[in-house]
Amino acid sequence: MAVSTADTATRRPRTGHATRWDVQALRALAVSAVVLYHLWPARLPGGFVGVDVFFVISGFLITGHLLRELERTGRIALGAFWGRRAKRLLPAAFTTILVTGAAVLLVVPASLWSQYGRELIASTVYLQNWQLAADAVDYLAQSNAPSPFQHFWSLSVEEQFYIALPLLLLGALAVAGRRRAAGFRVARVLLVTVLVVSFVWCVVQTVTSPGVAYFSTATRAWEFALGGLASTVRLPAVRTTTARTVRVVGAWTGVAAIAAALFVIRPTTPFPGWAAALPVVGASLVVLFGGASGLQRVGRWAPIAFTGRISYALYLWHWPAVVLVPIVTGHPLTATEKLAVLVGSVLLATASTLLVEEPLRAAPWLSAARPRRVGVLGVVGTVVVVALGASTLTAAHVAQERAAAAAERIASGDVACFGAAARIGFPDPCVNRDLADVRVPGPAAIGGDDANEAACWTNASSGDAFKSCRLGPETGWTKRIIAIGDSHNNALIGVYRAMAERYGWRIDVAGHARCYLTDGTQQVSSAAEQASCEGWRRNAFRYIGEQADRTDAVFVTHSTGDATVDPGAYGSVEDATVAGLAGAWRRINDVGVPVIALRDNPVTAYDVVTCTSRMTGPTDGSCDAPRAEALRFDGSAEAARLVPDATVVDLTRYMCTDDVCPAVIGGVVVHRDNSHLSATFAATLAPALGRAVDRALQDDGSARR
């Protein structure tokens, strides 16, 4: 669209066509910080802020380009602009995704294919940041292993910026034309508006929902906007010592701010929030003042210039290596392997830049004058890469179906010693040699082997809602139990259902992510999560009170390693845990209902699913966890001694021997992640748990000890 350029004649965008070597130096610094952080996080704890520096650079360069075009032609050619962006970004990105996707199929256990396939597709269509944001608020997805496509979240944010900025600018200019306002001035007003609104939202959401805030485009837009504003500032010509001093001081102050951020900001710092202002303002100072400073000489130095040149490709290639090499070797990266990853990533980035990225960007047959051709090739490339992800998901789904069918056949065949029936911690364990090389569910199915149900589940996004579901007969039930707790409670829904059917009980199940019945204050990740947990807990006690005259017992369990309570005045987490449990259980006793507490299940190594999926032949003990490490302090037994009407059920002997807690018991993989029982194994606990609860309920119809 055509706009007036009268106002722009005296306010040229800061960016010119000449190479900004200071910006190249900034690129080199940003990518080096990110790579070094991923390889040696303890040495450079804030290295991840390099991504924020990239956002500022993009805002500066792209806004400057659009405003130059607007000044020169009076319009913005969207097709040509997006075509140039596609030529710049897609070839290297699609190459990386294709190669990484092939590597996933070759070396990654099938247990990870489903997650990796989803993220491959999300990265290809530049929606990876929203995929990760959704996983951040999905409690049951928070234990997902890092994927080799995870770093595409920042490229997704950038791509969304490239789409949104010219559209917003055109919209603002249309309004300006009707109001006869200066186009350049309106562009600046637009950027200031985005800056203010996005920054305020960034600060708020970092407090209320930090997982989403980190990946959200809305919380990062201000970083691009500040860089864009820098491109609209016209500095006086460098004709005096004062002018030169201002630029030099401004540029090096920016460098100092970024350098400070690399060490002051840590992974535990609430981020982006207020903390992001340090690297973002620092980068903005560099792009604003660096054009006539010593940074120009720094950026021309061959190693720095080349690192800046390959920075995009280096960012693309290094992270897949960081994730995949440990999967291949079976152990965390050693110092030697980290150096090999660094060197290999530089070599791959060099080849990708020189052989793929730059030749295609300069190809005459893909010139900006042919945006349709670029668009068609971009669509074709997207379809090809997405097809790889779709085939991965399909293969994972087929494997899941086969594993589920195999598990069902085995479980329904009354197989001796299956799962918990192996009684591994008893003097007379049950051994079935036919199960020696059986491991169900299979690798592709284990991650989804979860009995939780949405109707019984609440998380922070649900506010203080209290949702419960009913298992067992609608009428004529002999006993009524309310089972309540966090995700470890809801992982037992299959067990509760089997108990309800066997004994004719009605069992109401209610669970909340990272929240259980305690009078203590749980340490959760955000204020919103804290408010949701406390509200849900109040509603849970209210529900128990309202149903007390029709309830025979409240069944409670909780995770020992997640959202521990604040030690407060008790001095230790252990003492505070016991006091919190005892206080909550007394409140249940006060309305006339006994408590039955299940001691939490053992935990295991984070990569237990990957470990078991590598096994071939008979199951060995390579993935087992030492009992002393797997059984964390639970507090239930100690709390029960303080509460008159409380009983503890401990099924540890079905999951651990005196020495270890095996990863596979009776042909069944025990955990679906580092702490949750697989639904298949949990179901095998139903007879033992049912007998224990029934015994407790038989004592005068209550759970009195």
- Give the low-confidence spans: 1-16, 700-705
Strand count: 11
Distance between the termini: 81 Å
What is the beta-strand fraction? 5-15%
Oligomer: single chain
Domain count: the total is 2
The total count of helices amounts to 26
Q: What Rg is obtained from the alpha carbons, in whole angstroms? A: 30 Å
Overview of this protein structure:
The chain has 705 residues and is mostly helical. The protein has two domains: 7-394, no CATH class; 416-697, SGNH hydrolase (Rossmann fold). It is built from 26 helices and eleven strands. It has helices at residues 21-39, 50-73, 78-107, 113-124, 128-137, 152-179, 183-208, 210-215, 221-231, 241-264, 277-289, 295-300, 302-309, 311-329, 335-362, 371-412, 443-446, 487-490, 493-503, 527-546, 573-590, 608-613, 627-630, 636-640, 679-684, 686-697; strands spanning 457-458, 469-471, 480-485, 506-512, 553-557, 595-598, 625-626, 646-649, 660-661, 664-665, 668-669. Strands 1, 2, 3, 4, 5, 6 and 8 form a seven-stranded mixed β-sheet that branches. The chain has a two-stranded antiparallel sheet with strand order 7-9. The chain has a two-stranded antiparallel ribbon with strand order 10-11. A hairpin with a 2-residue loop joins strand 10 and strand 11 (668-669). Helix 5 packs across helix 6.
Q: Can you give me a brief rundown of this structure?
A:
With 705 residues, this protein is mainly α. It is built from 26 helices and eleven strands.
Name its key features.
705 residues; mainly alpha; Rossmann fold; 2 domains; seven-stranded mixed β-sheet; two-stranded antiparallel sheet; 26 helices; 11 strands; disordered C terminus
